[in-house]
Amino acid sequence: MTNTTPFVFDIETAGADELFRRPDFVRLSGYATPGSRATLTTDAGEVARLIANPSFGPVIGHNITGFDLIALARWHGLDLASLRGRVYDTDLAVRCEDPPPSGKDGASVRPKGYYGLDQSAVRYGVPGKVADLDALAKEYGGHDQIPIDDPRYREYLIGDLRATAGLYKALKPLTTDYIRREMEVGLITAQMTLSGFRVDVDELARALEEQSKRKASNLQELSEITGMPLGRTVGKKNPRWEEFANPLATKEGKAAILDFLAVRHKIKDRFIPRTDKSGDLSLNGDKIKELRALVASHGAPADLVRALDLIVALVSERTVYQTADTYRVGDRVHPNIRPLQASGRWSVTKPGLTVYGKRKGRHRERRIFLRSRAT
Description:
2 domains; about 10% strand; Nucleotidyltransferase, domain 5
């Protein structure tokens, strides 16, 4: 690191889920250098150009490799590769200095937001945080509806700049190989999120249609066997039929299945799967599979075995195609990739690409993704 003029910045945006969808995503930006007052601007391009200026460095912000730099690269021309060796993400630095505990109980000792700027600033004794952005968003009906000139909005951004600068001073400098490496990795994952993964849109549409038809067919057959209602009539003055989104999750659906099992087929209560807390009928896949194996081994009637097979198929239906479509922007998904696990292993979310199958035929789920090409 040859640069010695720290450049602290932060941005205020529309809702995070719109990062890859809205050119006006970045609404207000702020930056400061040592000895200068914070500058606020609605010109995000100005901030991107200043960050790209090699005379500044390190470029400092909280979770900037997971959010801010990606937004500026997406909409304002920032070249992430040009920032190698110049970025100091205080979020990553806090995680390096105070990593999450390993083991199944690790998450329980780290409250939600533990590594966020608010809680990190408190732990390190850094002042600066003011106001409540979520309260402002609620007041105006959304983060993208807060007036740019609202003094509370602007003071919130200034407070974040102060807190980030203070946190940077309290943390280890960018001088060890370990810290430098983690900042490099942060830029790599930021670029991966920015570039995204290509989706075969036509194949995805086919997969969703196949799944929808299969689900509808299974529900119809299950309804015919058990009497489970697929919807209900709503409205007194103008009654209309309304289909259930998930009949098995409704009280009417569960009542019909329970009646089918306990009354029509006289299955004893101790064999009927129930939830631990409420004691309601449980349609958990494993429990239903156990019941299906039990009744089949005792020569159960064909309609009972078939109904249980249909329930297993329905509750085991994967949601990976719908998830991909939900997060798709054009022909790509842009998952959030961050080293959030205790081991430093990357987590991949929104969508969680690592859950797409590999074994027992589920490898076909990956057919909706294409080999990437240069962007």
